[in-house]
Amino acid sequence: MTQFRSSCKNDTIRVVGFRLILGLFGACYSLWAQPAAPYPAQVQKAAISSAATPELNGESAFLDDLQRRAFDYFWIEANSNNGLVRDRNEPNSPSSIAATGFGLTALGIGVNHGWVTRVQAAERTLAALNTFWNSPQNDKAVGAIGNNGWFYHFLSMDRGTRFRNSELSSIDTALLLAGVLYSKEFFDQDSPLESEIRRLAGLIYERVDWRWMANGSGSLSLGWEPETGFIKYRWHGYNEAMVLYLLGIGAVTNGLSSDQWHFWTSTFNWQTHYGQSYVTYPSLFVHQFSQCWLDLRGVNDDYLRAKGIDYFENSRRATLAQQAYAIANPGKFKGYGTNVWGFTACDGPATTRFRGYYARGAHALVDDGTIAPSAVAASIVFTPQESISALRHFYSEYRDRLWSNYGFRDSFNLHANWWATDVLGIDQGAMLLMIENYRTQSVWRAFMKSPEIKRGLLGAGFKPITKEPEAVKAVAVTGQ
After folding, report:
1. Are 214 and 220 in contact (CB under 8 A)?
2. Which residues of the chain have pLDDT under 50?
3. Would you say 279 and 237 are in contact if contact means Cβ atoms under 8 Å apart?
4. In this structure, are residues 310 and 299 in contact, taking their beta carbons and an 8 Å threshold?
5. What is the model's pLDDT at position 473?
6. Contact partners, residue 475, CB within 8 Å, separation at least 6
7. Which of 47, 269, 287, 396 has its CA 20 to 30 A from that of 147?
8. What is the pLDDT of residue 320?
9. In-domain check, residue 133
10. Are 434 and 479 in contact (CB under 8 A)?
11. Which of helix, strand or coil describes residue 413?
12. Which H or E element spans position 130?
């Protein structure tokens, strides 16, 4: 994507020689110049609140508190009138459609935990769906929410239209659609309110013209801009686009073909790092985001069938390789070890020596000593013991500088003695959803009922594994 984001994931990342422009999750700090939105009145940077937090002894109490704080981000840092969620906890931040997709899913989690009522969550969900369905879709540079069913990466928090020169983002639209389809399955009661949620969710998904974003190619473009047309970079190599391709293949109207899945997987890169062999990508968000909604345990496609594992196991191996990399610490950064790891796209010190927002990773990408708690928390389904141990370490050792009303701040760098000030919506979402899947699997259970995603998996050639790998069977994901 282009150069956007509070998170400028736009520092290009190559996978199999391919440059992934990671503007997809936010705008650079220069974007935060528009007047502050008037809602909610209490929005401000999450205060450091370690003095008010207990030791939270025990795994259950700790995860309860972490999840509730992450949920509060989506309830507070949102416009209750239109359902849009801020990219980060800056009063001038635009909405990120990816954060809004996580936020729609967070509402169901909030209901299950009793943090909000079902009616409150349904009303907030319907407000968002009305925004995405009723706002203008056209090829104009100003005043539209999207085009051909796709949506702009960043939207004005109050108007719900394109924020500055944000791109029409294929991956961010997919993360939004994941939340939309989750809402369609979660709100299954026979009431006018929930029936309308299901109706609008179906319409929003069905309107997407997937073939338009392919633009005559066997792969999807990262996006489109009204000023210049399609972004020339495309989704090649293993990356977070799994949910994007599966949603497109599951579409009945203007959908993608199974050939496009096979073309995508043909660009994957299988490597071995620190004793783990897997489809590689150095930054952990790639191994997490799609599986926040997709339960891929015990099923695989042609590519991984030949390797004898599934994508869940692939992410487990990638996570363990990252921890092993931190223990080895080839860059000799301060603090790295068994309980200090977690390399993903995150904020950074932004000095001459250290990057600002960048997609950090082990083995091949930039590693400048910056650690992201969200990378650890969102791997909890893959590596429960390792993740919980590291999270407890972060909390006990660093919470006076790292803890906030919304839980962990984005990142820290012990080598630079630097601590992030912000909380990011996509990171809060990945933490909240994956902890929920670890504890109850409720997000997976709801989303995997979706006929759209069932068609996508079938079209991509996913089949049950007849003999599940021992490593997968051993993973201690709780719930039914």
Report:
1. yes
2. 1-44, 48, 50-52, 469-476, 478-480
3. no
4. yes
5. 44
6. 297, 312, 316, 381, 382, 384
7. 287
8. 98
9. yes
10. no
11. strand
12. helix 118-134
Distances in whole angstroms, Cα of residue 210 to Cα of each of 128, 154, 170, 197, 305: 22, 20, 9, 23, 27
Amino acid making up residue 152: Y
Place of tokens 């210049």: 228
DSSP 53-67: -----SHHHHHHHHH
3-state secondary structure of 25: coil
Q: Which CATH number is 256's domain given?
A: 1.50.10.140
- Number of alpha carbons in the 13 Å side-chain half-sphere of residue 94: 31
Nearest by Cα to 406 from 30, 6, 4, 103: 103
The amino acid sitting at 85 is: V
* pLDDT score at 187: 98
- In a domain, residue 214? The reply is yes
- Hey, what are 331's tokens? 């860059």
Between CA 166 and CA 45 the distance in angstroms is: 24
Domain of 358?
A: 13-31+73-473
Pure H helices in 231-292: 242-250, 258-265, 285-288
**How far apart (Å, rounded) are the C-alpha atoms in residues 437 and 380?**
9
pTM of the model: 0.90
51 in a domain, yes or no?
A: no
Residue in the structure block whose two tokens are 């150095």: 282
Phi-psi category of 274—alpha, beta or left, where left has phi over 0 and alpha has psi -120 to 50? left
CA distances from 208 to 169, 251, 380 (A): 12, 9, 33
How many domains, in total, are found in the chain? 1
First-to-last C-alpha distance (Å) of the chain: 39
